[in-house]
Specification:
Rossmann fold; seven-stranded parallel β-sheet; single chain; 2 domains; 409 residues
Length: 409
């Protein structure tokens, strides 16, 4: 099967330039740097390299402090960090956040030809892969180049894990090339052990770590509710709750933030079909009573500062939920539906600390919104999460630090 994959990706490689030119036209790739994904580089490094490989902006941020700590550690004088990611947003973030001791490049596509070009050019000594970056050619070729690998904060959805379970020999042949695999949850660690892996351990979910987060200074408004990362199929739950709660709270405000802002027209049509009045945030830039549909990126935090209750979307449908830590850190009580398998470890911690609650249906959602809006105690959720995250960061950092020291040549 791996040979079939290698041949398939070898053939696809010849069509890759056209594919990326199309993505550039759609503004999904950087026109000045997309060639890096094809193994064509205009820079290099004379220093030895410690390689960090992530996917998107979220994964990059989860290890940003790891990278900065490692590369400023006196034990690694003469080393430079090579950071590879796949998304345009992660590349833009890296250019702003990293200095000359950290080189960012777009990750090579997983074709044998391009992977070889990447490894021949950069020659990293060790590789730290993040979360779910399982690219067979890249992993297997790294092993042939004697590059020691670790998979940090590994994440597999139940669907993807079930697929791998159907081809366990192939999965094990790929994953055994990591000397260490740390998992995002204890539950996932048990699943990987049951498949047959022996190189896994649960150290703690790095998503908890965010050194920049501070306790919210704004007073919470008892009439503001936020639906975050909402999918169109979940909208009717929130609108029904809004209509019911508005009968007793005249100034009640529901702020709806779609999971994908580019689907804003779908939300507008859905709201019209539900026979409710609403306003588009960009038209007024004001928070006023009623239903407000957000059509801008990177504005959620300002609403969390005033909201007492936030519902996290992707949980009333079989999507697995969305990360609830951002509103929780700003002292919002987090509500969610039954489907949270993508973040089960996080939600388990939040539930144990009374930071989140599950809602099972429309009536339950209404009751819990009302209950938490009436709660006069503003808990310091941020401190609880930050303290937990600090411990996890230190434990993971110790593991990574020891791994690199043992493996660098």
């Amino acid at each position: 099967m791996l040979k079939v994959y290698s041949i398939f990706t070898f053939i696809l490689n010849f069509f890759a330039p056209l594919f990326f030119k199309y993505r550039v036209l759609k503004k999904k790739d950087d026109p000045k740097r997309y060639l890096e994904k094809l193994g064509i580089y205009n820079k290099g490094s004379k220093n030895k390299l410690i390689w960090f490989h992530a996917s998107s902006l979220g994964e990059l941020k989860s290890v940003e402090n790891f990278i900065k700590y490692i590369i400023t550690n006196t034990s690694y004088n003469g080393y430079t960090a090579l950071v590879t990611t796949t998304t345009k947003s992660s590349g833009e973030y890296a250019e702003k956040s990293f200095d000359n001791n950290i080189i960012h490049q777009y990750a090579p596509i997983d074709s044998p030809q391009v992977v070889k070009k990447f490894l021949d050019h950069w020659k990293p000594e060790v590789g730290i892969f993040i979360e779910s970056e399982i690219w067979p050619n890249l992993i297997l070729q790294s092993k042939k180049y004697n590059i020691s690998l670790i998979l940090l904060n590994a994440r597999f959805s139940p669907t993807s894990l079930n697929r791998w379970k159907k081809i366990p020999k192939i999965f094990l042949n790929i994953m055994k090339n990591f000397k260490i695999i740390t998992t995002m949850s204890d539950k996932l660690n048990e699943s990987l052990l049951n498949i047959g892996l022996t190189n896994t351990k649960f150290v703690g979910n790095l998503k908890f770590y965010n050194p920049g987060s501070k306790i919210a200074s704004h007073d919470k408004n008892e009439n503001i509710f936020v639906g975050m990362s909402v999918h169109p199929e979940e909208l009717s739950y929130l609108i029904s709750a809004h209509k019911e709660i508005s009968r007793s709270r005249k100034n009640f405000t529901s702020i709806i933030i779609p999971r994908h802002i580019n689907k804003i027209k779908i939300f507008e049509e859905k709201l019209k079909s539900l026979n409710c009045d609403f306003s588009i945030f960009s038209n007024t830039n004001n928070i006023k009573p009623g239903i407000i549909l957000i059509d801008q990126y990177n504005v959620a935090e300002k609403f969390f500062e005033f909201a007492k209750v936030v519902f996290m979307g992707g949980s009333f449908i079989k999507h697995g939920g969305q990360n609830p830590l951002e509103p929780a850190r700003i002292n919002c009580k987090v509500l969610h539906g039954p489907s949270i398998y993508n973040f089960d470890e996080i939600y388990s911690f939040l539930k144990d600390n009374n930071i989140s609650s599950q809602v099972n249906d429309e009536k339950d959602l209404i009751n819990q919104i009302n209950t938490n809006l009436n709660n006069i105690n503003q808990e310091s959720f941020c401190k609880i999460i930050n303290d937990h995250g600090e411990n996890i960061f230190r434990n993971n950092l110790k593991l990574v630090d020891n791994f690199i020291k043992n493996e660098i040549k």
